[in-house]
Specification:
This protein has about 55 residues and is mainly α. It is about 70% helix and about 0% strand. The chain contains 2 helices and no strands. This is Transposase.
Length: about 55
């Protein structure tokens, strides 16, 4: 897996984790959540717009 959104957010999330002394499991959970949010945003950005009858 390439995980592009996880890599993009890695510097800030890892710095926060170090500063706040997060557990390793919490770091993994936060980074995977960032990946899921990024993928959802990309999916919704490519979704077709709803068409109305009068717009056809």
């Amino acid at each position: 897996m390439r995980l592009p959104y996880l890599r993009k957010a890695a510097p800030t999330s890892l710095a926060t984790a170090r500063a706040q002394h997060w557990d390793p499991a919490e770091v993994v959970r936060a980074r995977l959540q960032e990946e899921a949010v990024g993928r959802d945003a990309a999916t919704f950005a490519d979704a077709p717009q709803e068409r109305f009858l009068w717009a056809l």
